[in-house]
Amino acid sequence: MLLLAIENGTEEGKRIARVELQRMAKLADMVKRAPLDAQELATVLAALRFYQESGMGDPGNRSNAIHEIATNGDSVVSLDADAIDALCERLNVESSDGK
Fold first, then answer.
1. What CA–CA distance (Å, rounded) separates 34 from 71?
2. Does an H or E element contain 58, and which?
3. pLDDT at 24
4. Overall average pLDDT of the 73-98 stretch
5. CA–CA gap between residue 60 and residue 72 (Å, rounded)
6. Which of 35-44's residues contact partners 24+ apart within 8 Å by CB, and which partners?
7. What tens digit of pLDDT does each residue of 10-57 get?
8. CB of 31 closer than 8 Å to CB of 41
9. Secondary structure of residue 8 in the 3-state scheme
10. Where does residue 78 rank: exposed (0-12), middle (13-18), buried (19+ CB within 10 A)?
11. Which pLDDT value is given to residue 6?
């Protein structure tokens, strides 16, 4: 979805998609540097799914405190529900691959 936005979207859509891809790449790098044990991974995945199911991918649904965390103090665009889903899938795959 993000790649389609970069290829076919408006300039603002392309900018947002690039920011999201950069954020996901940074998070993947962080996860590689600080691997989680099985208990920690399960907790992170449960928290991400709860965040997603609670509609927190939409900034209008979250408190100011959660918004600050999700946007790193408004320095990044927060993940939407689809990006959260992709992150969960990637964490599951990488943990099962031993990466």
1. 21
2. none
3. 76
4. 86
5. 16
6. 36/95, 38/95, 41/91, 41/95, 44/91
7. 888 777 777 877 777 777 777 666 778 889 999 999 999 999 999 999
8. no
9. helix
10. buried
11. 56
Domain that holds residue 42: 2-97
Write out the DSSP string of 16-37.
HHHHHHHHHHHHHHHHHHS---
pTM here is 0.61
pLDDT for the residue 4: 57
* Total count of residues recorded for the chain: 99
CA–CA separation, 15 vs 40, rounded Å? 33
Is the model's pLDDT at 79 over the cut of 90? yes
Q: How many independent structural domains does the chain possess?
A: 1
First to last CA, the chain: 24
**Distance from C-alpha of 14 to C-alpha of 2, rounded to nearest angstrom:** 8
Amino acid residing at 22: Q
Helix (H, G, I), strand (E, B) or coil at 1: coil
